[in-house]
Design a protein that fits this description.
The chain is α+β, with helices and mostly antiparallel strands and about 220 residues long. It has three domains: about 15-70, no CATH class; about 95-160, no CATH class; about 165-210, no CATH class. Helix content is about 35%, strand content about 10%. The chain is elongated, with a radius of gyration of 32 Å.
Length: about 220
């Protein structure tokens, strides 16, 4: 970029050009405040479509306007799309904390974080207080959170063996909602509403199941 005031060529980009004009020309103009003149933005910025004009007595206003042409505009952050926000990822299997009434939690990771934060000093953890496998009849207890969550994960795997999740667009059947979700994205290019087992799909057959987004 070339400075219209001194014909100097600035090779380092808009930010360097802006700083050059502010320090070299507008800075010197501020030191000679007794000299009154008209400041035209196009003469300093090189942007001929800008007709902003003020007197040198309003130098700070001119600087503020000049900088707007060269400072990068902040790009608004796009909200993260969480396609799993309402999804029953474990197919009906619930994890929770009956100790303090925190029910339900979406993931086993959430249970681990909760126990580490709220109940770390607890000496015994009962399975029945944290998952609903077979109606909370498991009487196993553990001394550490790690042993508890490993045990709950075994219950989850047993629970998922009883489920089947069928794709509504082809004949593929999967054991977990996560596997079906991956198949829907890769094969059919869709984002789905919460998946249901075959029994639930029959009961809720009148409800819309999918919101389709075609990737171009």
């Amino acid at each position: 970029m070339q400075c219209n005031q001194c014909q100097k060529v600035i090779l380092k980009g808009k930010a360097s050009f802006m700083n050059h004009v502010l320090r070299k020309h507008l800075g010197e103009l501020g030191q000679n405040s007794e000299k009154m003149e008209t400041l035209c933005c196009s003469e300093y910025s090189g942007i001929m479509t800008c007709d902003f004009t003020v007197q040198s007595s309003d130098l700070e206003e001119f600087k503020s306007h000049f900088v707007r042409h060269f400072k990068p505009k902040p790009t608004p952050k796009k909200p993260k799309r969480n396609v799993n926000s309402d999804r029953d990822i474990y197919g009906g299997f619930k994890v929770f904390c009956e100790i303090c009434g925190n029910f339900p939690m979406k993931f086993i990771k959430g249970l681990i974080t909760h126990l580490d934060t709220k109940h770390l000093k607890k000496k015994e953890f009962k399975c029945a207080n944290h998952c609903d496998f077979e109606g909370n009849i498991c009487d196993e207890s553990f001394k550490t959170i790690k042993d508890l969550t490993e045990h709950i994960t075994k219950h989850l795997k047993e629970h998922q063996k009883t489920l089947s999740f069928k794709c509504s667009r082809c004949d593929k059947i999967y054991q977990t909602p996560r596997q079906l979700l991956r198949h829907e994205r890769q094969k059919h290019k869709v984002f789905a509403e919460p998946y249901q087992s075959e029994v639930d799909q029959v009961q809720n057959s009148s409800k819309p199941k999918f919101v389709v987004h075609v990737q171009i």
